[in-house]
């Protein structure tokens, strides 16, 4: 018997099939998520839910081209964003993604985010579901026939199971913002102060449970489908075999560090997010991360044009940069590079710096190595701020994301800075694989309940 994990990402949609007994990854299908739609405002970042469902249908159909015995389906996807649904369970709006910047627009002498944070005491960011909903409500964008809102992966669960309203896992509910983790509910008093009607909020569960069973024409009917979970939590579940003593670092376009705790305490930087079974994840994100390396490549391409060399946007400079990066551990007097080129969540106006420039180290190799070290240092500093709140100190360093997978130098730099051996996650599609693991857990919980009955 097998489980399926489905990941609704911002740029790709992936499905993964795993053996239930061994949890061995058997097959994956990844399709491009080309569902972006143009909004009326340049700061709106939206996708078409119907097109997303069509891509999901295609991916699942391709994965299920054999008469495979499927025990359960798990679902995950991009957190924070919201789609409005009516009482029949049909979407009545586009997906307002986590990239939506309406919360950064001017409002009442500050921004929508700034107003919410001051009024409620919660730390929110533009792209959080309730920030987007606050902006939409005040600007007449919320559809009149809206009944509930949910994440895109919650909506896909509704469509797969023909449900009329969403059931949202706490991992996603908290990502909307203004969520009281101590009492495990939305903060209704804060929502009242903002003038928001709480009736539009979805029902929330903290349990590893099924939301329904498949009821579509492209899948066998009656396959249990879990409540969807956040992609950060799914990636942690899919990458880390020993959560209590592990720290997960991810280096992609952005970068992220996640470590498990049992304490509901939010540090000064980053966030605390619900995980599973009364545990939580400290999560710190770099807004630039691996993109810093791409920015440096663009700089070198501009230099090439400046010196009269032919311009060729299709030619990648990464192989040459990677070759020079191998000198990272033999270069003396390194450059100290702060890679906050896109700011931070706490300070969007912060910018990167290059320090310790001397006559002997102002070279391309030093700059390349400085950027790589800078991206690692940014995550390590976040990790250090979490140490006092951890219930146990991590002994294992797990790496994921294409940046870490493809660069032995990045791997070694992480090991050096964290003073731990780094193990690269076995499965490339960590979130989809993690969703299948979550489905396996829900299936085992169901069997245990049936046994007890």
What does this entry look like structurally?
This protein is α+β, with helices and mostly antiparallel strands and 453 residues long. The chain folds into two domains: 2-227, Nucleotidyltransferase, domain 5, CATH 3.30.420; 241-425, Nucleotidyltransferase, domain 5 (2-Layer Sandwich), CATH 3.30.420.40. 33% of the residues lie in helices and 23% in strands. It contains 13 helices and 26 strands. It has helices spanning 49-63, 112-120, 129-138, 152-161, 170-173, 188-193, 231-239, 291-306, 318-325, 364-386, 402-406, 408-418, 430-452, and strands at 2-8, 12-19, 25-32, 36-37, 46-47, 70-77, 83-85, 95-96, 106-107, 110-111, 148-150, 167-169, 179-180, 185-186, 203-205, 210-213, 224-226, 229-230, 246-251, 255-261, 271-274, 280-286, 336-338, 353-355, 396-400, 422-424. The strands form nine sheets. The chain has a six-stranded mixed β-sheet, sandwiched between helices. Strands 3-2-1-6-18 form a five-stranded mixed β-sheet, sandwiched between helices. The longest helix has 23 residues, at 364-386. The chain is globular. The two termini are 23 Å apart. 45% of the residues are buried. The model is unreliable at 447-453 (pLDDT under 50).
Class inferred from helices and paired strands: alpha+beta
What order do the strands of the largest sheet run in, or round the barrel if closed?
21-22-20-19-25-26
- The CATH architecture name of the largest domain reads 2-Layer Sandwich
Number of strands: 26
Sequence stretches where pLDDT stays below 50 over 5 or more residues: 447-453
What general outline do the C-alpha atoms trace?
globular
Note the total helix count: 13
Q: What is the share of helical residues?
A: 25-40%
Radius of gyration in whole Å, from Cα?
22 Å
**Major β-sheet annotation:** 6 strands, mixed
Q: Which percent band covers the strand fraction? A: 15-25%
Q: If you average the pLDDT, what whole number results?
A: 91
How many domain modules?
2
| CATH top-level class of the largest domain | Alpha Beta
Distance between the amino and carboxyl termini? 23 Å
What is the third-level CATH name, the topology of the largest domain? Answer: Nucleotidyltransferase, domain 5
The CATH superfamily of the largest domain appears as ATPase, nucleotide binding domain
């Amino acid at each position: 018997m097998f489980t399926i994990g489905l990941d609704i990402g911002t740029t790709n949609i992936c499905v993964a099939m795993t053996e239930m007994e061994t949890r061995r990854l058997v097959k994956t299908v990844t399709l491009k998520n080309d569902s972006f739609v143009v909004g009326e405002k340049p700061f709106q970042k939206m996708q078409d839910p119907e097109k997303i469902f069509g891509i999901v249908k295609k991916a699942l159909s391709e994965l299920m081209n054999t008469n495979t015995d499927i025990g359960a389906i798990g679902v995950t996807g991009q957190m924070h964003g919201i789609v409005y649904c009516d009482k029949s369970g049909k979407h009545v709006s586009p997906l307002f993604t986590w990239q939506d910047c309406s919360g950064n627009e001017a409002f009442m002498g500050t921004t929508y985010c700034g107003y919410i944070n001051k009024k409620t005491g919660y730390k929110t960011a533009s792209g959080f579901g309730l920030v987007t909903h606050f902006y939409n409500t005040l600007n007449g964008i919320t559809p009149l026939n809206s009944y509930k809102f949910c994440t895109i992966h919650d909506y896909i669960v509704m469509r797969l199971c023909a449900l009329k309203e969403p059931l949202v896992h706490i991992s996603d509910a908290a990502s909307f913002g203004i969520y009281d983790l101590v009492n495990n509910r939305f903060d209704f008093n804060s929502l009242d102060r903002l003038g928001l009607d709480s009736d539009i909020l979805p029902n929330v569960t903290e349990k590893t449970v099924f939301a329904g069973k498949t009821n579509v024409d492209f899948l066998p009917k009656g396959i249990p489908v879990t409540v969807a979970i956040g992609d950060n939590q799914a990636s942690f579940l899919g990458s880390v075999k020993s959560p209590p003593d592990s720290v997960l670092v991810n280096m992609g376009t952005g970068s992220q560090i996640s470590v498990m705790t049992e304490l509901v305490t939010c540090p000064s930087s980053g966030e605390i997010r619900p995980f599973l079974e009364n545990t939580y994840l400290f999560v710190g994100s770099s807004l630039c991360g691996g993109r810093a390396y791409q920015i440096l490549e663009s700089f070198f391409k501009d230099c090439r044009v400046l010196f009269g060399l032919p311009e060729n946007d299709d030619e990648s400079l990464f192989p040459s940069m990677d070759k020079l990066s191998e000198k990272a551990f033999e270069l003396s007097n390194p450059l100290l590079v702060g890679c906050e080129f896109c700011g931070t969540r706490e300070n969007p106006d912060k910018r990167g710096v290059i320090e310790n420039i001397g006559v002997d180290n102002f070279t391309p190799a030093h700059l390349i190595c400085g950027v790589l070290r800078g991206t690692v240092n940014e995550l390590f500093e976040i990790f250090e701020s979490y140490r006092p709140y951890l219930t146990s100190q991590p002994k294992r360093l797990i790496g994921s994301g294409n940046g870490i997978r493809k660069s032995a130098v990045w791997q070694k730099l992480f090991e050096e800075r964290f003073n731990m051996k780094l193990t690269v996650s076995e499965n490339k599609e960590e979130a989809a694989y993690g969703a299948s693991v979550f489905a396996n857990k829900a299936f085992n919980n169901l069997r245990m309940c049936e046994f007890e009955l």
